[in-house]
Specification:
Layout (H helix, E strand, L loop, with lengths): L20 H7 L4 H13 L1 E4 L5 H17 L1 E8 L6 E3 L8 E4 L6 H7 L2 H11 L3 E9 L23 E6 L10 E3 L20 H22 L5 E2 L7 E5 L4 E3 L11 E8 L6 H4 L7 E3 L2 E3 L6 H8 L17 H12 L1
Parallel strand pairs: 5-13
Antiparallel strand pairs: 1-9, 2-3, 2-4, 4-5, 5-11, 6-9, 6-11, 7-8, 7-10, 12-13
Helix pairs in contact: 1-2, 3-4
């Protein structure tokens, strides 16, 4: 091992992103199973763990979600597809066409899924550290989001030191807006949005360079020998992808079909999600066994004080996530009760 290893990206990366990653496999004395996992992931940018999430844990999480939408649960926060406004689930609602954010805060069942042994072991392997879960989304229907790389939107202090997972909560059939991805696209050259950053900033970089980047990913998918591939998992299957893998949601052909899923974004413990800097009061980290977690949408320090019987301080603005006055007042009531 040397002090200044060469990486595929000028922004660095995980040890699997080093130019000498194959030598690293030998130097780290990985067992044959670990070596095979690393080789597949390093070359393709994704890996699938079949049946890695226990069925009973999947069912327990789904039950909590369905009950919350049937009866209402103000501890749950969600967005409608295409909207950045996060609002509490104050009453019964249709769960189709929405996504739940950071369900691991109100539901331990989500933490149990994200702590599935095979998943946790793989993150520990590629991170060289225990993982920090800092964002999650739960869908009933496909997002239909175009091809993109997470590093454009999901920001940590070391841009490529992150990975994501997609946990299937049911069998997924074609036409349901299934997950799509381009194997090997994680090794595309860094895209220059114009600001010198790995991520896209709408204010400084503008929409034009973003559109060029999106077209670039689509063109690469057409020209790639691997082509565009689709994920049709069985319940309990988990797909993990690299920070720079081009992926998205296929068009929903059959609106009657669902593709219930739980998505999580992770980085090594010790890395810093961007919102730690923009909203320091949201930088509290908790643990669920080896898994650490934090949230951009919940003030975990306030919740801890409330559980300890202390009087919560004044509500802090959460950077527009509770943008409506009604949602703001409801959050105040929930936290002070």
């Amino acid at each position: 091992m040397h002090d200044h290893p060469a990486f595929h990206s000028r922004f660095g990366g995980l040890w699997i992103d080093r130019a000498d990653w194959r030598q690293q496999v030998t130097a780290r004395h990985l067992n044959p199973a670990q070596a095979a996992q690393v080789e597949f992931f390093a070359e393709n940018g994704f890996i699938i763990f079949e049946g890695a999430a226990a069925p009973e844990k999947v069912d327990a999480f789904r039950d909590r979600i369905m009950t919350s939408f049937r009866e209402g649960n103000p501890d749950v926060r969600y967005q409608r597809h295409g909207s950045h406004v996060v609002q509490p689930l104050d009453g019964p609602a249709d769960r189709l066409g929405v996504r739940i954010v950071d369900s691991f805060v109100p539901f331990q069942e989500a933490l149990d899924l994200f702590s599935s042994p095979e998943l946790l072991a793989f993150f520990q392997l590629i991170f060289d550290a225990n993982p920090l879960l800092f964002q999650s989304l739960s869908f009933d229907q496909g997002s239909q989001q175009g091809l993109h790389q997470d590093t454009a939107y999901v920001v940590v202090d070391r841009p490529i030191e992150l990975a994501a997972c997609w946990i299937a909560l049911e069998d997924v059939k074609p036409g349901a807006g299934e997950l799509m991805y381009v194997p090997g696209s994680h090794r595309l050259p860094d895209w220059d949005f114009g600001s010198g950053n790995k991520h896209w900033d709408s204010m400084t970089d503008g929409a034009e360079t973003h559109e060029k980047w999106a077209r670039h990913l689509v063109q690469h998918a057409k020209e790639s020998p691997h082509g565009l591939q689709y994920f049709f998992p069985k319940k309990g299957d988990i797909l993990v992808w690299h920070a720079d893998l081009a992926h998205g949601g296929a068009p929903v052909i059959d609106p009657a079909r669902t593709r219930q899923s739980l998505v999580g974004h992770f980085c090594p413990q010790g890395r810093t999600p961007h919102f730690f800097n923009t909203d320091p009061h949201l930088s509290t980290v908790r643990h669920h066994g080896p898994l650490a977690y934090c949230s951009q949408h919940y003030d975990l320090s306030r919740q801890a004080r409330a559980r300890a019987g202390r009087t919560p301080g004044p509500q802090r603005k959460q950077d527009g996530f509770l943008s409506s006055l009604a949602a703001f007042r409801n959050a105040m009531r929930n936290r002070s009760s």
